[in-house]
Each structure stands twice: as structure tokens, then as C-alpha cells.
């Protein structure tokens, strides 16, 4: 337990990163909103508050639709980071209405449920091939052999990125996502800027090609999407493509490896899943709750807000703790227990409100396809070595997950 004035929350501590859930329990006991000096944020650990605040229009992913940096009491980003912010700030995840509404509506015209459903056979075939390869080798790294290549290939296929061009996608994504950690280093920022420039340049060329020769891919769909004379700008298209790749595979990769590591540590639940594959849909939801791939989501306070008698002023930043909310005993019975038959599971791993993950249906198809392929084709899969955690907090994952097939 931490001392009376301290918080049991240290996102740079290896012990905390290995298992943050006991610290979250202490945070929930301490209150509904707690100031955290090292990042200047207000931590929100309880499910009811996180869920409500995700829908609260007094908060925003950005403040620039209403205030300048100076008016909001914030410093403008460093000029040398401009390429990252240009890319990030034109994606719908970091916009608020009316821009968010317009872009999401146009993207939804291209990214339809039918488009996603049409990918199912491709996803299932690719998952089967990746697992077969792993089985033939007698095992390997589940992260690099199955978890990563599946969603990257699916998003690349969806966008229309030729196979020969796909190698840099994952490194670009990883470098850009480094900026989403708390207080990123100068080195992480420099990598994110370089990746932002290279990825944007590549997509600008791809968009130019699709303008000349449209296909049935998502980039062509984004170019064609229009509504009452409204179209996406080139920068909005570039930012949308990067967002779909980054969000579309970071969470899926980490949900896969976090999930299988949890199953290996809960052999009774793994045995039940192997005995009854109809548990797969519920298992995916429970595994995303149990070890949440995205632990924290930020919101700016656009108008003073009161939480449990504490006034959080305009200009402050809330850190909504998804991992803590998903372990709140007020909502989940026995939350520290992995229960693949959990019926009532309102986890918020895909967020909520207007920023609910547009790719959630695709993520569920990918997670189910890889899980079923592993259950069917590698029924003796087991952990070969204890994995190392990535030294990240916000995006929670493993460095590797070495497995054997007996």
C-alpha cells in the first residue's frame, strides 16, 4: 500500500507495469478523481465515471475547436514536432464536432459493415495459414508469427496497400504510437516525427495513384465519399488511413498476446475454451476486459466540471483509466478472476460515446479468427518462456510470447 499522501500509481515502474491492477484497486478506494502531479493529470479510476465522462460534451479530445493554446493555458507543441501533430490532429480520434461528425460520417460511407463482413473469409484464411506455419515449426513467437501479421495485412488489404509496400507499416505505426505514452522522451518524439513524414509521403503517393486509377479498396472509397458536396481533404484522408492502421492493429496485436498469456496463466479457463469453442465470442470480450490493451484515454476539460465535490477546472486533463474501470467490483463480480462465461460484461476497451472505436467489428473478427485457428490447429499450444512486458503503460503489451506446439 502507498502512504497517506501518495498514489499507488507509477506508470514508469516495472513492478506496476507488470501488474497495475492492485494499484487500481487502491485508486478506486481513494476516490473518484485524484490529481497526479508527475503528469499534471486527474486520474479517474471507476467504471461509472469513466463511462459517463466518455460521453460528456464538456470534455474533448482536443480544445482547438474552441480555444487557442494561450486561451486554454497550454503551450503550443514544439515546432519540430509539427509533422506528427499535423497527422494526428486531422484524424477523427482527435477531433470534436463539427469536424469529427463530418469526417466520421464520410469514413463510415467507405468503412461499412458490409465492407468489414466481406473481409471475413480473407481474415480466416490468413489466420489459418499463419497458425499452420507456426505449427509446422513446432512453435515460435506468437506475437511476430500470428498476432502482428494478421491485422497489419488485413488493414493493408483494406486500404489497398500492395504487398511489396507493407514492410514499413508496422514500424511506422509503432514509432507514431510512442507519442501516446505519458511524457514521451525526445528520442520517442523524433522517431514519431520521422515516421509521420515517411508514412504521410507514402500515402500521398498512394492517394494520387487511386485518383487516377480507382479500385475497390478503402483509399478509393475515401476519395469517392462525399455528402452534400462535402469531401475529405487530402490531409484528412492521410490521417484517417494512419489512424485505421495504428488503432486497427495496435489494439488487436496486444489483445491477442495479452489474452493468450492470460489463458496460459489460467489453465482451467483454457481447458474449458478448448473443450467448447462456442465460448470464443465471450472469451474475446472477457480477455479484453481482464488485461486491457489500451489502459488510459485522455480528455481535455473544456468547461469546469465537478466530480464527487472536486471541481476540475477548464484547461485540465483527465486520464480515464480503462484498465481500472474494467476491474471495478461495482460493475464486475469478482473482477480479478478470469471468467470466460461472464455474461454481463460492459467493458469499455473500445471506448464509448462519439469516439467509440469504428473498427471494433473488424477487431472482433480478427481476434475470433486467430483464436479459433489456434484452438483448432494447435490444441497443444503451451507457453515456452515467461514473456517480458513492453516498458509502456498506455498501450499495454508484451515484447514477445514464445510458445511451443507439442
SS field, number of helical segments: 17
- Give the name of the CATH architecture: Orthogonal Bundle
Q: Enumerate the strands of the largest sheet in spatial order, edge to edge or round the barrel.
A: 1-2-10-7-3
Gap between N and C termini = 42 Å
- Percentage of residues in DSSP E strands: 5-15%
The fold-level CATH name is Cytochrome p450
Give the radius of gyration.
21 Å
Report mean pLDDT, rounded to a whole number. Answer: 93
Query: What is the CATH C-level name?
Result: Mainly Alpha
Say which CATH homologous superfamily is assigned: Cytochrome P450
- 3D shape: globular
Summing up helix and strand content along with how strands pair, one would put the structural category as alpha+beta
Low-confidence stretches: none
Number of strands: 12
Can you offer a commentary on this structure?
With 406 residues, the protein is α+β, with helices and mostly antiparallel strands. It has one domain (14-405): Cytochrome p450. Helices cover 49% and strands 10% of the residues. The protein has helices at residues 14-18, 21-30, 47-53, 82-89, 99-110, 113-118, 120-136, 142-147, 149-159, 169-177, 186-212, 218-224, 234-265, 267-275, 280-290, 322-325, 360-377; strands spanning 34-36, 41-44, 59-60, 139-141, 226-227, 230-231, 296-301, 305-307, 310-312, 317-321, 381-383, 402-405. Strand 5 and strand 6 (230-231) form a beta hairpin. The protein starts with 13 loop residues before the first helix and ends with a strand.
Amino acid at each position: 500500500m502507498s502512504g497517506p499522501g501518495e498514489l499507488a500509481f507509477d506508470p514508469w515502474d516495472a513492478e506496476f507495469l507488470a501488474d497495475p491492477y492492485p494499484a487500481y484497486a487502491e485508486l478506486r478506494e481513494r476516490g473518484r478523481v485524484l490529481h497526479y502531479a508527475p503528469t499534471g493529470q486527474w486520474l479517474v479510476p471507476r467504471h461509472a465515471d469513466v463511462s459517463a465522462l466518455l460521453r460528456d460534451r464538456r470534455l474533448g479530445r482536443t480544445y482547438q475547436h474552441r480555444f487557442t493554446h494561450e486561451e486554454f493555458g497550454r503551450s503550443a507543441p514544439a515546432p519540430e514536432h509539427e509533422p506528427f501533430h499535423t497527422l494526428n490532429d486531422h484524424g477523427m480520434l482527435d477531433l470534436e464536432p463539427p469536424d469529427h461528425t463530418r469526417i466520421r460520417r464520410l469514413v463510415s460511407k467507405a468503412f461499412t459493415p458490409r465492407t468489414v463482413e466481406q473481409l471475413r473469409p480473407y481474415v480466416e484464411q490468413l489466420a489459418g495459414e499463419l497458425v499452420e506455419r507456426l505449427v509446422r515449426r513446432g512453435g515460435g513467437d506468437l506475437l511476430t508469427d500470428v498476432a502482428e501479421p494478421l491485422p497489419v495485412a488485413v488493414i493493408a488489404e483494406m486500404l489497398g496497400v500492395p504487398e511489396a509496400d507493407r514492410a514499413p507499416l508496422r514500424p511506422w505505426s509503432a514509432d507514431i504510437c510512442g507519442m501516446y505514452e505519458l511524457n514521451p522522451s525526445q528520442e520517442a518524439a523524433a522517431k514519431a516525427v520521422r515516421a509521420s513524414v515517411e508514412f504521410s509521403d507514402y500515402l500521398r503517393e498512394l492517394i494520387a495513384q487511386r485518383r487516377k486509377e480507382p479500385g475497390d479498396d478503402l483509399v478509393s472509397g475515401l476519395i469517392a465519399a462525399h455528402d452534400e458536396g462535402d469531401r475529405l481533404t487530402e490531409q484528412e484522408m492521410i490521417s484517417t488511413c494512419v489512424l485505421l492502421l495504428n488503432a486497427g492493429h495496435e489494439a488487436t496485436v496486444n489483445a491477442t498476446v495479452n489474452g493468450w498469456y492470460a489463458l496460459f496463466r489460467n489453465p482451467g479457463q483454457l481447458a474449458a475454451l478448448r473443450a467448447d469453442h462456442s465460448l470464443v465470442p465471450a472469451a474475446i470480450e472477457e480477455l479484453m476486459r481482464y488485461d486491457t490493451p489500451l489502459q488510459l484515454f485522455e480528455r481535455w476539460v473544456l468547461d469546469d466540471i465537478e466530480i464527487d465535490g472536486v471541481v476540475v477546472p477548464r484547461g485540465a486533463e483527465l486520464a480515464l483509466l480503462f484498465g481500472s474501470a474494467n476491474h471495478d467490483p461495482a460493475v464486475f463480480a469478482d473482477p480479478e478472476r478470469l471468467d470466460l462465461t461472464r455474461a454481463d460484461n460492459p467493458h469499455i476497451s473500445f471506448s464509448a460515446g462519439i469516439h467509440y472505436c469504428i473498427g471494433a467489428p473488424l477487431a472482433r473478427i480478427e481476434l475470433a479468427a486467430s483464436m479459433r485457428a489456434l484452438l483448432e490447429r494447435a490444441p497443444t499450444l503451451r507457453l515456452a518462456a515467461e514473456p517480458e512486458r513492453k516498458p509502456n503503460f498506455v498501450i499495454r503489451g508484451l515484447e514477445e510470447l514464445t510458445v511451443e506446439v507439442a
